[in-house]
Amino acid sequence: MARSRLEKDGPNAMPDTSDHPLRNALAKFWAPVPWLLEASIVLQVVLHKYLEAAIIASLLIFNAALAYFQEGRAQATLAALKSRLALNASIQRDGVWKILPAAELVCGDLVKLSLGGVVAADVHLLDGSVLLDQSMLTGESLPIEAGPGADTYAGALVRRGEATAVVTATGIRTKFGRTAELVRMAHVVSSQQKAVLRIVRNLAIFNAAVILLMGAYAYAHSLPWSEIVPLLLTSVLAAIPVGLPATFTLSASIGARSLAKQGVLPTRLSAVDEAATIDVLCADKTGTLTRNELSVTSVRPMPGFDEAYVLGLAALASSEGGEDAVDAAIRSASSKKPTSGMPKLNVFVPFDPAKKMSEATATDDKSGGVRIVKGAFTAVISLTTPAPDAAALAEELEKQGFRVLAVAAGPAASMKMIGFIALSDPPRDDSASLISELHALGVRTIMVTGDAPATAAIVAHAVGLDGAVCPPGPVPDGVKPEDFAVFASILPEGKYDLVRAFQKNGHTVGMCGDGANDAPALRQAQIGIAVSTATDVAKSAAGVVLTEAGLGGIVAAVKVGRITFQRILSYTLRSTTKKMAQVLLLIIGLVMTGHAVLTPLLMVIVMITGDFLSMAYSTDRVRPSAMPNSWQIGRITGASIILGACFLAFCTAILAVGQFHMRLGIEQLRTLTVAATVYGSQAITYAIRDRCQFWGLRPTIWLVLSSIADLMIISVLAYRGIAMAPLHLSVLAGEFAAAVVFGFILNGIKILIFARFHIA
Questions:
Q1: What are the Cα distances from residue 523, in Å, to 69, 271, 629, 754?
Q2: Residues with Cβ < 8 Å from 669, sequence gap 6 or more?
Q3: What is the largest CA-CA distance in the chain?
Q4: 632 compared with 672, residue with greater pLDDT
Q5: CB 736 within 8 A of CB 679
Q6: What's residue 646's pLDDT?
Q7: CA distance linking residue 511 with residue 528, whole number of Å
Q8: CA distance 672 to 338
Q9: Is there a contact between 141 and 195 (Cβ–Cβ < 8 Å)?
Q10: CA 228, CA 86: separation in Å to the nearest integer?
Q11: Is 60 exceeded by the pLDDT of residue 162?
Q12: Other CB atoms within 10 A of residue 579 CB
């Protein structure tokens, strides 16, 4: 029977869906920028331009290798989920108890749950009693008592007791398995990926139209095909933002190293600049906003008793050195409020789930034997003399979301209610300041928890989240972050759905959590943040892992992310400005001279010196924005068009001087054009570094050195006539001086341009 069920339902395990490393590597060659480079390589080979083809192939491999070795691990979350499942289970087969691999469990099997074990499948308890820790799956901050008729889930930990249960679900059909499946399915395209795609698309559409126009003009003016084909190839090369993906990766890598020094470890590089864009943070309560440890919040003694006495007696009825979090919290609180005259412990009886209380027998110098009980109010009150105010006091504390224990003591036949102890998981000391600082940075914080609404509301108020609490149940359609401050009693599917709902409303979402129950939402969010106490499951699903206690790392991630974003934005503006202007310069040069003013080899030189050396932008000093960033591609394109028109005017003016004033030949005009392109690009580099001020912050040494290298390489090549016709040093000096003037003019114009397009 068991074998047939195993064949029908499959093993009690999750399937391996990881991609082969070779497939991941090849995927780096399948994207818009690689496609353009690959097409250029093919055209160069067809034209027997093997040197140019080899150089472009090197650029392609460099981009792919950088992305492959720097980017994160896609299937690690599922591997971590598997590692949490029990490897073996105690199963009854053919009337005999056996230890078998958990993968062989099938529905209907009888299993034994024992102290310290991990529940291997979803089960329904038949007899016995156990204390279960389900916090990593359900988000409940306290262990729960489970007896006959209760259900529990794969991955729960047995903290105390023993029970027999029947298996109700295995493999991916368990709640734990559905969480793993949600993680596998959860995916959101990063804003970085979207930005690259849209930039390449816009450039491709614009430049394709210009290239077609240029080809038609050349054909109509009877240019030989030996000139038309290289001209079109040069135009294609001029349009490729070859360094853009590598700059995104390099900037994120530098940001990741900076975050690591602050105790924040990105697990995938896209999370670094994604942190700059989040405007909503979904924070899990347990272990994220709270300490994930029980403590005594309030002690309410009955008339005639004081707090220290209530805690002292409760400590006598608590286990010492065990794993019971409630008893540990009470003993800790009692040690901080010592009192004299306490009874001497004789016998301690551990917590009995059936009776819902623990007890102790002690000796009092005054009255002799004393019985002390601690537990649920309904169980304790039945053993005491009537206490009219006790029920109201217990109800008052329970309504505040506390876990309430009643304490009674006295002779066995006439015990009195002496007081109540309220326990809770207290907020972290830095949670309120974190939320306040995030608010100042334009990030709205939402509490998302599996705990009860009353408990969640108390913690929310303590950390400064005073908005409405969403009623328990499915996530409302069209919900917005401003509708509720707290989402309570929410399951993993609900957290996942909530993140998606916010994303559909146009928000960039950060999800903060610590347990396996948070993993699907962590993966779906643009940036998932696992706190220092998180499970391996949560850390693998997250984009950022905090390695130090406290949540200050989230603020650090946002700030470093915004610095990284500004660096990438600077390079993107420079790249799109150049690419648009270069293609238009080719058609203007064709009309002005009747020839191509740049050859494929010269364009490859410009790509190497301009695109790759300018990746030093990834180290530049920038001003982080005060509010969340976003990739407004339309605005970036609009600003780039105007900046490109300025750059085109500069290059055209240089070309016109060479053509009509200096009467240079076509070969020297090509050298003049290359130098103008490189010198003008450097002017753009320093003009657009700061969006709102005439001069930006002092550039880093790496940016300065890259600029010097760029200028020296092209100047030496042009002066010595290497790969191009030589130009006199005075001509190059005049071009450089013109570029300096152009840089000053552009520095003033850019302030108006960025203000017009709201680029900050």
A1: 21, 11, 21, 35
A2: 589, 593, 597, 655, 658, 659
A3: 119
A4: 672
A5: yes
A6: 96
A7: 5
A8: 88
A9: no
A10: 68
A11: yes
A12: 25
Place of tokens 């430049």: 207
- Which residue has 């290497």 as its token pair? 722
For 523, other C-beta atoms within 10 Å of its C-beta total: 25
Is residue 466 exposed (0-12), middle (13-18) or buried (19+ Cβ within 10 Å)?
exposed
Which residues pair with residue 348 across a beta bridge?
360
Res 89 pLDDT > 90: no
Report the C-alpha gap between 28 and 26 in whole angstroms: 5
DSSP for 633-650 reads HHHHHHHHHHHHHHHHHH
Q: What is the pLDDT, as a whole number, of residue 141?
A: 57
Which residues, 6 or more positions from 744, have their beta carbon under 8 angstroms from its beta carbon?
Answer: none
Mean predicted confidence (pLDDT) in 260-267: 84
- pLDDT per position as a tens digit, 565-578: 999 899 889 988 99
Cα–Cα distance between 163 and 326 in angstroms, integer?
Answer: 22
Please report, for residues 58, 107, 507, the alpha-carbon distance to residue 4 in angstroms, rounded to integers and kept in the order given.
56, 11, 49
Cα 52 to Cα 10, 237, 600, 701, distances in angstroms: 55, 11, 7, 31
Compute the distance between CA of residue 125 and CA of residue 87 in angstroms, rounded to an integer: 20
Write the single-letter amino acid at 34. Answer: P
Q: For the residues of 265-296, what is the DSSP string, one character each?
A: EESSTHHHHHTTT--EEEEEIIIIIB-SS-EE
Q: Rounded CA gap, 197 and 248, in Å?
A: 13
CA 468 – CA 461 distance, rounded (Å): 10
Tell whether pTM > 0.85: no
Beta bridge partners of 113: 163
Separation of CA 592 from chain center:
52
Buried b (16+ CB within 10 A) or exposed e, 8-32: eeebbbbeeeeeeeeebeeebbebb
Amino acid occupying residue 320: E
How far apart CA 333 and CA 425 sit, in angstroms, is: 14
The token duo for 395 is 């109800």
- Whole-number average pLDDT of the chain: 83
Quickly count: other Cβ atoms within 10 Å of residue 395's Cβ: 12
* Cα–Cα distance measured from residue 675 to residue 669, given in angstroms and rounded to the nearest whole number: 10
327-365: string of b/e by CB count within 10 Å (b at 16+)? bbbbbbbbeebeeeebbebeebeebebeeebbbbbbeee
Give the C-alpha distances (Å, rounded to integers) separating 431 from 70, 356, 363, 437, 444.
Answer: 32, 34, 45, 10, 14
